[in-house]
Amino acid sequence: MSKPPSSSNTPSRSRDEVTDAHFMETRAKLLDLAAFLDRLERAVGADDHRVRGLRAALPILLEKDPARVAKILNLWSDPTTAPIEKSDTKAASGVWPKIK
Amino acid sequence: MRYIEPHGHMVSRTTDDYQAMALAGCKAICEPAFWAGFDRKSADGFHDYFCQLTQHEPRRALKYGLPHFAWLCINPKESEDMGLAKEVMALIPEFLKAPNVLGIGEIGLNKNTRNELKIFEAHVDLAVQHNQMILVHTPHLEDKRKGTRLIIDALKAHGKVQPGRVIIDHVEEHTMAEALDQGYWAGITLYPESKASPQRAVDMIETISAQRVWLNSACDWGHSDPLSVPKAAIEMRRRGHSSAAIDRLVYGNPLEFLSQSPKFILPEA
Ligand SMILES: [Zn+2]
User: Fold this and answer.
1) Contact of A70 with B173, CB cutoff 8 Å
2) What is the DSSP letter of B139?
């Protein structure tokens, strides 16, 4: 069994305890994700950048690295560094529009 | 339980929310100036808003026994019109004298444009000139990481900003360490969808840092929850964190940061 990451702020707990606390809400979220993907299949048209970003993030869930959330957020982030001249929208969409 | 709500847009909330927060153990509310969901057309609109934040809202909060504090600025979403932004900024020095104003905020970036950045830098300079603390709004979603870096670069480039008097708010897993490593405080915003959940916030506390961090609900006119800070406290409790650790995070930390302003005085402290 792998050792938990060391952090002085984490009270020690077993995997069973974490599972008892958070399994049902996570199970429901996974089914919602599956249902969303099914709903997309039943609709016409192509995936936009948000859905492409979502699909690109799925393999990260299966990696062993414990920094999955940061990895996904980084994947969806604008990788450029210079301020832009002007924006045609005030709102962000959730995934960098030019994601591959 | 006692806690401080260090970032709530109470002008958008009902009196029921004030009551629920007081019942949950809230001891003070701080309200940064922000976007109203539509663009105001003139500096007069902001003048009225600053009056609301410094006169009317403190009276409304007091009915529930809650001290109310404010931060002032023109927010990045309305900073694209630099003429308007400069007119609004000219109003701020007079309002800084109000007894409930703690500093300049929430300033920052939205879409990371050149004009937003110029107005952010002008606000930072205003804060330094008037010896004010700074509350920074980092951009949403895919714009957050880039915007956080631009903001930190601009704060450093100014040369006279004391990082310990600046909070970089709305950090997430990919930006929190960067803010803390440079000596700034970090704010984790608890939103039902677009920022962190109470569960993720407690994960960040456990794995990144519980020092120089505050939690806030940023409750406003959008999908948000004014009770999300006490809900995060409950999440900590069910994970086995001590009462002292919870109190330090949701009460002690904001108290420590905010008390750098001589105006932040709580009746019972
Ligand atoms: Zn806000």
Assistant:
1) yes
2) P
Interface of A with B (CB under 8 A): 5, 7, 9-13, 21-22, 66-67, 69-70, 73-74, 76-81, 83-87, 89-97
- Hey, which residues does B31 pair with through a beta bridge? B70
Domain of B233, in residue numbers: 3-258
The answer to whether residue B263 sits within a structural domain is no
Distance A91 CA to ligand 1 centre (A): 15
- Measured in angstroms, the CA of A59 and the nearest CA of chain B are apart by 18
Token readout for A25 is: 């809400």
* C-beta of residue B250 within 8 angstroms of C-beta of residue B4: yes
Q: Is the peptide bond before B106 cis (omega within 30 degrees of 0)?
A: yes
Q: Could you tell me the sign of the dihedral formed by the alpha carbons of B1, B3, B8, B12, in that order?
A: positive
Domain that includes residue A64, residue range: 46-78+93-100
CATH number of the CATH domain containing B121 = 3.20.20.140
CA distance between the termini of chain A: 37
Answer yes or no: is A7 within a domain. Answer: no
Residue ranges with CB less than 5 Å from ion ligand 1: B 34, 218
Same domain, A25 and A74: no
Task: Answer whether residue A5 is part of any domain.
Answer: no
CA–centroid distance, residue B8 to ligand 1 (Å): 7
ipTM attached to this prediction: 0.95
The pLDDT tens digits of the residues spanning B157-201 come to: 999 999 999 999 999 999 999 999 999 999 999 988 888 999 999
Taking a C-beta distance cutoff of 8 angstroms, is the pair B192, B159 a contact?
A: no
Closest by alpha carbon to A54, among A22, A32, A84, A87?
A32
- The interaxial angle of helices B144-158 and B114-129, nearest 10 deg, is 40
